[in-house]
Amino acid sequence: MNKLPEKIRKRLQKEARSWDTSIAQEKPGETAQVLEQSVIFKAYRPTRQPVSLRMDPFDLSMAKRIARRKGLSCTQLMSMWLHEKIDQEKAAAGNDR
After folding, report:
1. Mean pLDDT on 5-30
2. CB–CB of 74/63 below 8 Å?
3. How far is the C-alpha of 90 from the C-alpha of 92, rounded, in Å?
4. Rounded to an integer, what distance in angstroms lies between the CA atom of residue 11 and that of residue 59?
């Protein structure tokens, strides 16, 4: 399911095609010159807050196994799961109203 409205998605696709054609026409020297003049973009996020959680040892070991299989840390995986569940609950609450 795509969260973007169809109108915005089409506009972004059109913009992407425009960028692709303009980039394809650039010469390597022009690209290097633009990159030398560019400024590094840093996106700042609010600091994350640590949380303590008591878990069943079996659940924790399973979460660690799943995280290892996915190439993530256990805390990253749990954070992703929590975020997904919150999104689901928000969507369900929106449908109830």
Report:
1. 88
2. yes
3. 5
4. 45
Give the confidence band of 2 by pLDDT, cuts at 50, 70, 90. Answer: low
Confidence of residue 17 (pLDDT cuts 50, 70, 90): very high
Checking if the pLDDT of 95 tops 80, the result is: no
| Residue 91 CA from chain centroid, whole number | 18
Which tokens in the block code for residue 85? 């569940």
Q: Considering the chain, what is the average pLDDT of its residues?
A: 89
| Virtual torsion, Cα 11, 12, 13, 18, nearest 10 deg | 90
SS3 string of 19-77?
A: HHHHHHHCCHHHHHHHHHHCCCCCCCCCCCCCCCCCCCHHHHHHHHHHHHHHCCCHHHH
Q: Is the pTM of this model over 0.85?
A: no
53: left (phi over 0), alpha (psi -120 to 50) or beta: beta
Give the pair of three-digit tokens for residue 17. 């095609």
